[in-house]
Amino acid sequence: MSRQLDDLQTAVGHQFGDEGLLRRALSHRSWIAESSDEVSNERLEFLGDAVLGWVVADLVYSEFDDWDEGRLTDLRKSVVNAAALADVAREIGLGQHLLLGNGEDAAGGRDKASILSDALEAVIGAVYIDAGSETAFGVVRRLIGPRLSEAPSQLDRLDQKSTLQELLASRGRRSPTYVLTSQGPDHDKEFTAKVVVEDEVLGTGTGRSKKMAEQQAAGEAIDRLNAADHA
What we know:
Elements: H1 2-12, H2 19-25, H3 29-32, H4 42-63, H5 69-79, H6 82-91, H7 102-106, H8 113-131, H9 133-150, H10 160-170, E1 177-183, E2 190-197, E3 200-207, H11 210-229
Antiparallel strand pairs: 1-2, 2-3
Helix pairs in contact: 2-8, 4-5, 4-8, 4-9, 6-8, 8-9, 10-11
């Protein structure tokens, strides 16, 4: 396990003094139910969520000093959400290192946005405990900072459902409908949304809330429509 984690620590940008913290950050509750380990990554996720919020708030406040509170909030949301964090987790290969129960693993848990985003937050929490606030700040800035530089040009995509509605209206097409399904227990549901326009599925999205899934589906539909324009 130690050798396997070397690549992950390099990708995260921190070598753990206590590697047990990193193992705990990777331990999904489904793993705890099927192994001798006793503590999942949920407490570290709680801490990491707070650390992540603090660092990103600091970064956007410092780097966008002429923006008002509303736009700073939108900017933070654009990089601190399950879909964006899951993308970061995929970039550093976090999924292959997760400790999952057999059922969750077989169900594709290593690429689920909710599991990946939670695990990334847990890793950030583990870095904070292992090395303190300055190191945690540096890790978050390294992982999230590049996305912040791209985010201002994409803020109009935050409400992708409205953008899709306007795009379809401009083309004389009908309004979209969203078909929702969910899986998992009540305390850990993952929603899937399909956006349908005139009996055609234009996009699919997943998320830990209905809204997140619908927004992701709308974004995929927008990308598909715009790609068709340039085909």
